Amino acid sequence: MKKFLLLVIILTGLAVYSSIQVISYISKPAVCIDCHGSKYNATAKGSILPSHTNSSITCIDCHSGNGIQARIDTLNVVAGAKILNESKPVINQLFQANFSFVNSSNNTRFSLLKENCVKCHPESDLKGQMHANNTTCNLCHFAHTKQNINFEAIGIQTHKNVKCTACHGTGTDIQIPSCTQCHEPHVKDATWGNDVCLGCHKNAHIPTRSMTFSGNEPKELCKGCHPSEYQNLTTNGGKHNLLPSCTSCHPAHGVIMECLDCHGDTTDEFNAKHYPHHQNACTLCHRYVAKCTACHNPHNPFSGLPRPATDQQIAEIAKQRAQILTAPTPHPARTPNPDE
């Protein structure tokens, strides 16, 4: 009787020890990595996973329900998945099948592995300014997926002191507000919409101030703030209106390209000839004109040009000009500037 009792004690001890070892093994991330290695090893920037693993928090700690029974059920699912995963090659070879977890009867129990943040983070601790009612943790906090840039933006730049709920409401249905609910338009009586605002300021969560464009913004985007320029360009712009975007000449807000960046071939003509004065150099009459825009409106290049003059008018202007240049002056003679 004593021998039998001793044998029972030994077998029970071995069973308990084996169970502890199995539970300890199944609880380790190494078991999960067999199927989910890419999610565990290739952690996205900003993920909350490293902070949890550094605190010795395992996959099962997060992916299980509350209480001992829930943990046991979760371990049972993981153990079954591990056995099936190791048995797949043998099963497929014996039965000439293509077995997977998708068609496994155990698949429905995987819902037990859903993440459960409130086990360690009670809802009573989550009533801060950034947490809306009836929302989910993974709406903002990511463990295995790519970090959302909007989450990184929280707490920086213009909107750093604004609650998420102030713009997006408190329900699970995210609301997209109008920028003008809080921000005064830059130009009064202009046509405003979020597409116009974000055309320059890009991301609403990180509203840029540099306003550097991508190069493919439609002209209609600029119309909201620059209606007269848009009307002038699209009506009288000539070849400039054939350009795909206003950003072809304005790569950043407030930046104006030099005309010669595109019209470099006109430099020689400007110093030699120009219709209708093709027989004389432009600089003979326009020696002090510093910019192309003195004659050409970039949004309507021909609007600033005078009417064509007759040969007699040209000769008279040249004569008057010559008299001005050769007229006596009370001031001492100066050395001509070769750039003039």
From the structure above, extract its key features.
single chain, 38% helix, 340 residues, elongated, 12 helices, mainly alpha
Description of the structure:
By secondary structure, this protein is mainly α. The chain has twelve helices and no strands. Among the domains are: 17-120, no CATH class; 190-257, no CATH class; 259-323, no CATH class. The longest helix has 28 residues, at 68-95.
Helix/sheet category: mainly alpha
Give the CA-CA distance, first to last residue: 124 Å
Largest β sheet strand count, sense and barrel closure: none
Bulk shape: elongated
Q: Please state the average pLDDT score.
A: 71
Give the beta-strand count.
0
Q: What is the radius of gyration? A: 38 Å
**What share of residues is helical?**
25-40%
Put simply, the count of helices is 12
- Contiguous low-pLDDT stretches (5 residues minimum) are 329-336
* Order of secondary-structure elements: HHHHHHHHHHHH
Multimerization state: single chain
Strand percentage: under 5%
Task: Give the structure's gist in a few sentences.
The protein has 340 residues and is mostly helical. It has helices at 2-26, 29-41, 49-53, 59-62, 68-95, 149-153, 164-168, 194-201, 219-223, 227-236, 267-270, 311-326. The longest helix has 28 residues, at 68-95.
